[in-house]
């Protein structure tokens, strides 16, 4: 019989949580879903992108990845290796005043997440626009991988994402 991997179990847990926020609670609108097996390097990627319901100005993405090494550690039951996945959070929004809004975003992330690793903000714009609006991709990475032991933290993590979205919408 097939035993699902840690990646599969976490993927289903995140799907259940976010889809419930969409269909049952109507707190979010899911706008994109990625479920990829990268055959070139034998890795897995899952991501759900969503906005607050009726508020498309800012979106959030929960991304879960497992490398070949992560999957092999579990499937081959390698000693000394703990099966786990990498979790990243991204927020996408437009900013007009880069210096001011990016500082506000940094403050919001520090207050809500108290991250050990500094969040990154990647700014880009379309060359040639008369009055450019800047795309900001905000990424939160974590200094450790997650496993099934953190599954009970998914509802709280989801609430933090919703809180972040609500605060980011206020500064658009």
List keywords for this structure.
172 residues, alpha+beta, 6 strands
- Secondary-structure-derived class: alpha+beta
Overall tally of structural domains: 1
Radius of gyration, whole Å: 17 Å
List the helices and strands in order. Answer: HEEEHEHEEH
What general outline do the C-alpha atoms trace?
Answer: globular
Write down the oligomeric state. Answer: single chain
Tally of separate helices: 4
- Would you tell me the overall average pLDDT? 95
* Proportion of beta-strand residues: 25-35%
Distance between the termini: 50 Å
**Low-confidence parts lasting 5 or more residues at pLDDT below 50?**
none
Give me the count of strands: 6
Approximately how much helix is present in the residues?
Answer: 25-40%
Please describe the biggest sheet, giving its number of strands, its sense, and whether it closes into a barrel.
Answer: 6 strands, antiparallel
Description:
The structure is a single chain. Helix content is 34%, strand content 33%. It is an alpha+beta fold and 172 residues long. It has one domain. A six-stranded antiparallel beta sheet has the order 1-2-3-4-6-5. A hairpin with a 2-residue loop joins strand 2 (43-52) and strand 3. The chain is globular, with a radius of gyration of 17 Å.
What's the topology here?
Elements (H helix, E strand, L loop, with lengths): L5 H18 L4 E11 L4 E10 L2 E12 L1 H8 L10 E10 L2 H16 L6 E5 L9 E8 L12 H17 L2
Antiparallel strand pairs: 1-2, 2-3, 3-4, 4-6, 5-6
Summarize it.
By secondary structure, the chain is of the alpha+beta class. The chain has helices spanning 6-23, 68-75, 98-113, 154-170; strands at residues 28-38, 43-52, 55-66, 86-95, 120-124, 134-141. The chain has one domain (6-170).
